[in-house]
Amino acid sequence: MAEKLGFLDQMLWGKWADRAAINRNAEDLSNVEADVTALRTLVQRQAAEITQLRAMFMGMVEVLHQRGSLDETELESAVKAAFLKLSPPPPEPKPSASDPYRGIATSEPTAEAIEAAKALLATAQKHHFGKRFDDARAVYQQIIDQYADTKQAATARQQLENLRKA
User: Fold this and answer.
1) Could you tell me where the DSSP H helices lie in 1-104?
2) Which of 44, 54, 58, 137 is most enclosed, with most CB atoms within 10 A?
3) Are 117 and 139 spatial neighbours (Cβ–Cβ below 8 Å)?
4) Number of H helices, E strands in the chain
5) What is the value of pTM for the model shown?
6) How far does the chain reach from its first CA to its final CA, in angstroms?
């Protein structure tokens, strides 16, 4: 009867199982508390360094004001030069604007370009379905190189990616 109700199990192992879970959770909690403490000390150290840099900068400005006249334009140009020296150059813009979601150019291609790209895509698909993958890759790449601003080029990119995975 006691076995059916689980009294024996609770009396023998129940408290030990609870203690093991509590100990595991206590270890996890102490690890998290240690991580939080480490992050707090890091933030405090960085805040102290920032305060020290601000104080040094303010002190330098005060010394410059006391020593002589300060030309604002000269100071501004020096600050801009230092900023450009410290910051990385901006990325070069791509020659044609494209739709970021599909990789298709937003400028409209000509009707001749679309027809030529369709014909090449049909040739590439014949090679692809005929399991002549090297020929298909070459034609897909030709479409991408010559007609990058068409929907067919986006299809060719996708097919070329599929062939690379295979």
Assistant:
1) 2-5, 7-9, 15-67, 72-86
2) 137
3) no
4) 7, 0
5) 0.37
6) 64
